Amino acid sequence: MLKRLLLLIWITLLAGCAVNPVTGKKELMLISESQEFAIGREQYVPAQQSQGGRYVADPNVAVYVRQVGMKLAKVSDRPDLPYEFVVLNNSVPNAWALPSGKIAINRGLLVELQNEAQLAAVLAHEIVHAAARHSAKRLQQNLLISASLAGLGIALDDNDLRDILVGGAGLGAGLALAKYSRDHESESDHYGILYMVRAGYDPQAAVELQRLFVRLSSARQSDWLQGLFASHPPSEERVRANQALVDKLGNPGGFRGEAEYKRAMKHLLATREAYKRYDTGMKLLRQKAWQAALDKARSAQVLEKNEALFYQLEAEALIGLGRKEAALRAYDKAISLNPEYFALYLGRAELLRSLGRDAEAREDYEKANRWLPTSVAHLALADMALKSGDRRAALEHYKIAAQASGETGKQARQKLQVLEAGQQPGRYLKLETFTNTRGEQFVVLRNTGPVAYRQVLVRLELMNASGKVIANERLLFESAIAPGGRSPVSRSRVADQAARIPGTRMAMTILQADVVE
Predict the structure, then answer these.
(1) Dihedrals phi, psi of 128, to nearest 5 degrees
(2) For the segment 236-272, what is each residue's pLDDT rounded down to a tens digit?
(3) Dihedral sign from CA coordinates of 337, 343, 349, 354
(4) 48 or 13, which is more confident?
């Protein structure tokens, strides 16, 4: 997808300016609407998966958020966009929008809001980002600057994930977390309030929300700093601008929906303590405090029995304690509660592989990749394919895993080079000739590759100026040739003739080369 965009950007420079569908201003727009739709469609699921997957313990929460979102989308300046609204299972307070109206709000933000009007303020703000094509323009700007994904100036909160995402999966995750310009934030504040009024909500809730954000920002709460405040930085200036607009509109009032919001969020608010215990458990897990992490997981399960993440935490703590069979049962439970989250399959696959159950592990790695492709899964699939003798499949998986920037990507690149060296020895074995004091010609093979070779059988051909073969011979180099080393010298009849006959050239073909394991 990215390569197609890079090509089309230069072609569409001829397209000139387009009118912003929200502001009515003319502006340079090189990403077409069809490309915008494709980005949103292709990146929405990877962006969700990279940030915890969907919250499914209480499906009614997502239904409610979608109803509020669609109510606002219908009165937006682009009501025909294929809007979608999801709730992510992430404690970090955040919300984001991808091109074409693909919007998400985190569980961690929902528990901070007080009423439906505040939820409408958040969603209306994100709808403007989509309707005004802010995400598409942000991508366009960075592509023009760098013409590469590396120049997007975006980063995932989870460094481990950033290092293992492959293919185009990192693009959506990065777009979701990237910072907006001050102008884009101002536009989304302004038009978001107008959308709220059109939908019948009290716009004062947008002012209240910004005041809350400023207060929390000044307190420098770490979860907020890495979430909403990183991509949507609050300020007193934004509070004043929002209040001025509400005053200009005559303080119209409108629906606030406190009771409706509390009713819709009843289960989520009732289980808030469970997620606090889980978050603490995850910190303990990173500290390798296995038993303490296990205790937190099980205490969270008491408060919320339908959350897959709590059983994943239990499984990882049990693995740390060496109780792998019990961990497997915990992973089975987690997947039964949420069969649409990549990390559960990836974790169970790693566990199954450590138990020697490769066939089951392979199935889970493949399922994990269907939700979110990672170098971890592709590297494991490559290793297992190579073990079973399927070099072609191994090669494909290594190539994909090698795209990642982390340690697994590095391992994949090394293994890919070794595998290619075994399949294409001609790329690494170079023929050298030299003459002794009696004028006799000898040849030697120099190994420029990463693996050692032995039993190397080569065919040497001597061709005249017209390319016709006039002599040939076969030479066998039996001894191992180490990486960077040379073979023992071999007398060559063809090399002798090449030295004596003007206008001829010698060519080498590798007929056989065994890799030294």
Answers:
(1) -65, -40
(2) 889 999 999 999 999 999 999 999 999 999 999 999 9
(3) negative
(4) 48
Give the pLDDT score at 1: 53
pLDDT in tens, 166-203: 766 666 666 666 677 788 888 999 999 999 999 999 99
What does the pLDDT look like over 409-450, one tens digit per residue?
999 998 998 888 888 899 999 999 989 888 889 999 999 999
Q: Is residue 446 classed as helix, strand or coil in its secondary structure?
A: strand
User: Using CA atoms, how far apart are residues 22 and 125, in angstroms rounded to an integer?
Assistant: 12
Paired tokens of 388: 């079973």
Q: Please report, for the chain, the start and end positions of each structural domain, with discontinuous segments joined by +.
A: 31-267, 272-422, 425-515
Q: Distance between CA atoms of 408 and 387, rounded to whole angstroms?
A: 18
List 204's β-bridge partners, or say none.
none
Q: Does domain 272-422 have CATH number 1.25.40.10?
A: yes
CB of 48 closer than 8 Å to CB of 54 = yes
* Residues 6+ positions from 438 with CB-CB distance below 8 Å: none
DSSP string for residues in 11-49: HGGGG-EEE-TTT--EEE--S-HHHHHHHHHHHHHHHHH
| Statement: residue 149 has pLDDT above 50 | no
- If DSSP codes are grouped into helix, strand and coil, which group holds residue 321? coil
Q: Which amino acid is at 28?
A: L
Question: DSSP letters along 371-427, please?
Answer: HS-BHHHHHHHHHHHHHTT-HHHHHHHHHHHTT-SSHHHHHHHHHHHHHHHHH-GGG
Distance CA 192, CA 131 (A): 11
pLDDT at 159 exceeding the cut of 80: no
Question: What top-level class would CATH report for the domain 425-515?
Answer: mainly beta
